[in-house]
Amino acid sequence: MSVPPGGSVSLAGPERAEEVVHVIHAAFAARPALDPPAPALEETVDSVGKALAEHGGLIAELGGQVVGSLLLEPEDRLIALRRVGVLPEHQHHGLAAALAAGAEAVARERGFDGMALEARAELPGTVHFWNLQGYAEVDRDGPHLTMVKLLPHARRLPTAEDTRALGERLARVLRAGDLVILSGDLGAGKTTLTGGLGAALGVRGQVTSPTFVIARVHPSLVDGPDLVHVDAYRLGGTAELDDLDLDTDLDDAVTVVEWGSGLAEMLAAERLELRLERAADDVRTATLTPVGRRWLGVDLGPVLGTT
Ligand SMILES: Nc1ncnc2c1ncn2[C@@H]1O[C@H](COP(=O)(O)OP(=O)(O)OP(=O)(O)O)[C@@H](O)[C@H]1O
Ligand SMILES: [Mg+2]
């Protein structure tokens, strides 16, 4: 994540409480008035100092001045970002994104599953900003949204058999209604992985590249979910999965979409993104990114084979 020239993001303790309160007050006062008002405006040096002493926070500095900050607070397996703010005169220069990247690094280092935060529905620009950082809404209580970004997991796949085995292990966590978005270049191994998944799910028919059809339904032979295998290259950018008029209800199936570009978020709010990348030495890397409420608390370590 790029920080503007002369800028830096670092961990902060209670000794920075005064500067952090200043940022919080200035940033939150500059927002449109909300009902109920953001409690951030009631923060004091005392309350912020206490929060910083307990769990720490992050500050963004520019030319020696603290211009942005956030407070950290563990919430079960996630780390919450609170009071995220940047001084109004320093907004739109990537500082908030740099703070978000810093929080992600902290979450990774400290072994959390991901990050959570509260956003106000009345501030669509803020919600959009967090969407762009990879956060998805997982809960809504009136105007209060809970947004979460779960950390991706990666592993190397030296052989095609490793790719297939990953698909097989994926079958253990998938259930009816789930959507898997497979992205990666031509020949990265998307169909190979889906083949392993189909075999482990116990569905009928060989999984092949759905080149001549947009989608193929593989019915379950074991009273489990069907497998719907979609080639999104042919589906086109704006099409809806529901419009495919398939012979099965997507709620009763595991749906796998082979997708080349990064438009996955258009398909569903809850999804498992699996990206396959092929390096110069032909070795593939799989990166699994769970998105949405469905995946909160789901341990993907065993799927990746990393734990
Ligand atoms: N981890 C891997 N290491 C080496 N070869 C692999 C690996 N995974 C898959 N392959 C091989 O790469 C080739 C292409 O695989 P596959 O058809 O699954 O890719 P794809 O991503 O579905 O391609 P397309 O973009 O055409 O849909 C196959 O020959 C497969 O055996
Ligand atoms: Mg394919």
What is the approximate shape?
Answer: elongated
Task: Say how many strands there are.
Answer: 14
Ligands (ions, cofactors included): adenosine-5'-triphosphate, magnesium ion
Number of domains: 2
The ordered H/E elements are EHHEEEHEHEEEHEHEEHEEEH
The amount of beta strand, in percent, is 25-35%
Structure explained in plain terms:
It is a single chain. The chain has 307 residues and is of the alpha/beta class. It has 2 domains: 144 residues, Aminopeptidase, CATH 3.40.630; 152 residues, Rossmann fold (3-Layer(aba) Sandwich). 26% of the residues lie in helices and 31% in strands. It is built from 8 helices and 14 strands. A 7-stranded mixed sheet has the order 1-2-3-4-5-7-6, with helices on both faces. A 7-stranded mixed sheet has the order 8-14-13-9-12-11-10. Helix 5 crosses helix 6. The longest helix is centred in the first third of the chain and has 15 residues. It is elongated and about 65 Å long.
